[in-house]
Amino acid sequence: MPNLSLKKVPIPEQEPQIRNRNFAEVAFGYTPEMAMEESTRCLQCKHKPCVAGCPVRVRIPEFIEKVASGDFEEAYHIITSTNFLPAVCGRVCPQETQCEQVCVRAIKGESVAIGRLERFVADWYMENRKPRLEKAADRNKKVAIVGSGPAGLTCASDLAKLGYDVTIFEAFHVPGGVLMYGIPEFRLPKVIVQEEIDNLRKLGVKIETNMVIGKILTLDELHEMGYEAIFIGTGAGLPSFMKIPGENLNGVYSSNEFLTRINLMKAYKFPDWDTPIKVGKRVAVVGGGNVAMDAARSAKRLGAEEVYIVYRRSETELPARLEEVHHAMEEGIIFKLLTAPVEVVGNEQGWVTALRCIEMELGEPDSSGRRRPIEKKGSEFTLPMDTVVVAIGTSPNPLIKMTTPGLVTQKWGGIVVDEHTMATSRPGVYAGGDAVTGAATVILAMGAGKTAAEAIDAYLTTGVNPVSPEDEACVLGSNKEEY
Amino acid sequence: MYPIVHKQILNPTVVRLDVSAPLIARKARPGQFIMLRTDEEGERIPLTIADYDREKGIVSIIFQLVGKTTQTLSEMNEGDSILDFVGPLGVASHLEGYKRVAVIGGGLGTAIAYPQAKALHQMGAVVDIIAGFRNKDLVILEDEMRAACTNLYLTTDDGSYVRKGFVTDVLNEQIDAGAGYDLVIAIGPLIMMKMIANLTRPYGIHTIVSMNSIMVDGTGMCGGCRLTVGGETKFACVDGPDFDGHLVDFDEAMRRSQIYKNNEKESMDKHICRLTGKES
Predict the structure, then answer these.
(1) Which contiguous run of DSSP H or E holds residue A269?
(2) Does the pLDDT at position A475 exceed 50?
(3) Which of A209, A434, B95, B206 makes a 20 to 30 Å CA pair with A171?
(4) What are the Cα distances from residue B91, in Å, to B56, B57, B85, B221?
């Protein structure tokens, strides 16, 4: 008899007014008892809509069945047969628009807490078991992975397990990409990312940090060094600005800079760590995606008294995960919706003093399907402000494109690939993740890394690409304000 | 890890380190820079590549002690290693096709201008180096500069060496005397580069300046190094560091250079406390 509770077993969390002053993780995670109770809510549907809703096809009912019976170890092996970063995905995947959205239990009541269960299983395994490192026989073929975010890590993991000699090249001093520099500690503890990366090293994957490919080595040189296939997973690191007056004033940050200083460079530990950050008493974060929520919640934790989300559409259109919006509201973030900045105002010394805004209303739906915001004439107003963080999106970094002749990209910078193989216009070169789609999610990047790994394996086995990109060029996604 | 193979103290506040970084040395060109981090808690800072030896695999940096990171770096010795060393970053200087060039360096800027002068000189251009320092004790690279140019003009603010005055005085005189420069490269404090650009603007002499902005990653990701050039926002790390001096908004750049001034002092004071065991 399934557990007929309409609600998920609640997950213990830090109190909002306590957690908004520290960087420790917000949610503590399920206990084994909670996980077993929640897992009995799963109906074990035969048609498994949740699996189809997952970009990497995690065998969800199967792992949940194991959790219900207390066999957490086997649950872990079922998850990791298709998803190599469960501790990460359990925390940052937008389950409510993927697996949980199509869960039969969600028709009446809340879906099964798939994300929380995935996280529980991953955390339990990390704490209680040693990773099982299974590798196929050595293939004696070298593959280079450029970028160590979710796409690159997944591609590397799959290829290493198939017996390839894999080297990851990372531009920063630590691997992990957006998992390290972008997503804050309170949402994704960095020790978890590091543990996953350590497991990858144990699989024999080499990681070379401080390597800006395109500068120190070109793709052609990597080929000359014996890398027979290359996967580009360089992400969408180029920040967009609003192009309004005053944007270069002191105290205006891109969300990339703001979050990198905090997450990667540990500016919240200044002066014990050397990298500083300037957070005033009043902070405005422009944008409504997960990145904007992360920046706003970080600003609050750094001591800002009033933190605003300034977003030009309404609450319904906020691209951030619902959970993140709720968390932000609980923590006291003030939402200025239907509001668009028109100017950053500064003083004579060049510091921000205010954000001049205009009210918006929603018109007809635009190409994204969301109702288009229109300015309300004469509704300008001024919010006094010390710090402004611009979190309106990012596009792919152009460094690889600039130094790789023959690599076809979209006008906005995304690398053009064949959607079935992730093959680019250059033979032996594959790409995936935000470098292809523009800013999207961790799990989509992982899916792309997986697809590319299969195609690279086929290419290195047969010597040909299954499909040529000229025949079937494909645009994946667009610039969205999300991870 | 990137071992320091040679250390040279150029003056009481300026140090040169030759660092073993073979892959970077293979690609480095004048005008490019590296990012470094000395230790786990350290900041990432950009430093211009002062010289490189492709065969020996060495990249040289010359820096002034201005904050915590450069202080820590100056305390390192031959045999020590720098934790992170990334490059070569930025766009290399475009030096082709010039015949008569003035390369101007102010203080530490002379160390950054030197490789450009050397490259131009080797390419057959007639090169005047104009190098300014606050006083005699701070003069660096005099012999190297002399070997890399046709005429070397040294100035000191207080007149304690060669000639009293500023680099702008010399440039003004040379232009008036009909030097016929087709390029001026100015590298030094922002105020100096601004003055040079103002001086050459009426003559229409192409003037390149090197912008050493605040950066985190150095690869176009953070946008902290943004500046206004000809009314457009540019990133010093990927669009520069060289820019047309006549188009740079120096006043904005000077304001932006002050963002972390208080923090830098706090960080430095703490470092000194650690060294001396004294409260600041």
Answers:
(1) none
(2) no
(3) B95
(4) 23, 20, 17, 16
- C-alpha span between B170 and B154 (Å, rounded): 9
Both tokens of B8, joined, read: 């040279």
Neighbours of A198 (CB within 10 A): 10
Contact A241 B86 (CB under 8 A): no
Distance CA B110, CA B129 (A): 9
Q: Distance (Å, rounded) from C-alpha A273 to C-alpha B233?
A: 30
Encoded amino acid at A336, one letter: K
- The confidence score (pLDDT) of residue A480 equals 37
From chain B, the residues in CB contact with A237 under 8 A are 217, 219-221
Number of other CB atoms surrounding residue B274 within 10 Å: 9
CB nearest to A272's CB, from B41, B85, B258: B41
User: What sign does the dihedral B218-B223-B227-B230 (CA atoms) show?
Assistant: positive
Instruction: Judge whether B114 and B127 are in contact, CB under 8 Å.
Output: no
Backbone torsions φ then ψ of A388, nearest 5 degrees: -130, 130
- Looking up tokens 């904007």 gives A292
- Tell me the pTM: 0.92
Q: Are B58 and B18 in contact (CB under 8 A)?
A: yes
Q: Which amino acid is at A107?
A: I
Q: Which residues of A touch B273 (CB under 8 A)?
A: none
How confident is the model over A286-303, as pLDDT tens digits? Answer: 999 999 999 999 999 999
Stretch (H or E) spanning B208 = strand B207-210
**Helix axis angle, A290-301 relative to A322-330, nearest 10°?**
20
> Tokens representing A106?
């969600």
- Residue A466: predicted pLDDT: 64
What is the rounded CA–CA span in Å between residue B278 and residue B273?
A: 5
pLDDT score of A296: 98
Tell me which residue of A364, A347, A366, A346 sits closest to A356, measured CA to CA: A346
Token pair of A274, please?
């050397």
User: Omega into A94 within 30° of 0, i.e. cis?
Assistant: no
pLDDT digits (tens, 9 = 90+) for A197-230: 998 999 999 999 999 999 999 999 999 999 999 9
d(CA A23, CA A301): 7
Chain A environment of B255 (Cβ under 8 Å):
249-250, 349-350
* HEC profile of B83-123: CEEEEEECCCCCCCCCCEEEEEEECCHHHHHHHHHHHHHHC
Interface test with B, best of A146, A148, A173, A268 (most B CBs within 10 A): A173
Contact indicator for A123, A209 with CB cutoff of 8 Å: no
Q: Hey, which bits of A255-333 come out as E strands?
A: 282-286, 306-310
Q: Is B174 helix (H, G, I), strand (E, B) or coil?
A: helix
C-alpha–C-alpha distance, residues A368 and B191, integer Å: 47
User: CA A452 to CA A454: how far, in whole Å?
Assistant: 5
Burial class (CB in 10 A: 0-12, 13-18, 19+), A225: exposed
Distance from CA of B78 to the nearest CA of A (A): 22
By three-state DSSP, how is residue A249 classified? coil
The parts of chain B modelled with pLDDT lower than 70 are: 275, 277-280
